Amino acid sequence: MELFLLFQDFIWVKKEGVTDGKFGRGDLSVRTRRQSKKLRRRGGLKLTHAFSFPNPRLEKAYIALQAWKHAITDDPKNLTGDWCGPAVCNYTGVYCAPAPDDNRITTVAGVDLNHGEIAGAIPEDIGLLSDLSLLHLNSNRFAPTLPDSLSGLRRLFELDVSNNRFSGPFPGVVLRLPSLRFLDLRFNAFAGEVPAAVFNANLDALFINNNQFQFTFPANFGNSTASVIVLANNNIGGCLPASIGGLAKTLEQLVALNAGLKGCLPPEIGQLKKLTVFDVSFNDLVGPLPESMEEMKSLEQLDVAHNNLSGEIPAGICELPRLKNFTFSYNYFCGEPKICSAIRRRDDRRNCIPWRPEQRPAEECEAFLLRPKISCSDTGCSGSPPPPPPPPPPPAVYHK
């Protein structure tokens, strides 16, 4: 299911190198001087001291961008072909704006190399771009990890490194970015645990789908401030916790399809009155749909297909005023109120609803009904079938 997520990007004005005449090369920080020497020691860069810059921050940006260009191994669209000379605000994909703390000077505020198919690494020198607010690198071939120096980007608001070749554990450096609100790590090869601290971060959007993360929801999941959380195509392997109700004030979209979810949907999900998109398809959820979902008045798209859900569809769900797309195919529901037929797009195939077409064979539905009853606790985390009965005692041994 396609999601149309609207985010307002920052708009940066390209500047030609505005200067107030107060700064010169002699004002460079010690760190910048040391970085400059480090670059020269690498042998791949030769900084021309004849260059003059409007302010020290643009000179640091020049050093960082030259180091980055040197770390690129393939640039098929030649996006960085004009990354030379001191006019960094004229580089392709580089955007400048007045400094947040001094609007008299111009700084590099954004780098956008989306869809560049660029191969290479992100160098430690990126930490010199201390005024960066936006870093968009999706659909490239950057690898292998995000450098630790990224933590120096104290003003970074949006970080999008999706659809690259990053790997290794969750990049903890992103949790040390105090201004970060938009984090997109999807379509990489990150693996392992997702730190619980992610859900304490002051994020508005969290995309970690299509990686190799393996984790269960931490107790603080409900602390997240995000309006959009996309976890799909990982191995979460647990249940949605009751703490999900804590997301009621902010959460608008939750996508966790094919994420290894188990157990029952907790009744606290009904507290998510701002939620517009809820997709938990292709999991191993069991039990009925909670009647509390009738309170999700903002819901527009609901997808619970390809699970082991059962019982009757609550009529109140189909009466939700904004629901346009309701997919509950490939489950074991046995009843569907007629009011559901009013939903513009609904898919109820492969269930056990007697009067609807394209349902499961009767014998398959009967076999499902013979399974042990599912009991969902208030936490929603004990919706697994009860343990099998103990084995019969061994046959008695008779001694002659």
Automatic annotation (TrEMBL):
Under PANTHER family, the record lists:
LEUCINE-RICH REPEAT EXTENSIN-LIKE PROTEIN 3-RELATED, LEUCINE-RICH REPEAT EXTENSIN-LIKE PROTEIN 6
**Source organism:** Vanilla planifolia
* Region spans: Disordered: 378-400
Q: Where is the composition biased (Pro residues)?
A: 384-400
Looking up Pfam families in the UniProt record yields: LRR_1, LRR_8
Record localization? Secreted, Cell wall
Q: Give UniProt keywords alphabetically.
A: Cell wall, Glycoprotein, Hydroxylation, Leucine-rich repeat, Repeat, Secreted, Signal
Task: Give the protein name, as stated in the record.
Answer: Cell wall hydroxyproline-rich glycoprotein
Q: What is its main location?
A: secreted
Top-level lineage group: Eukaryota
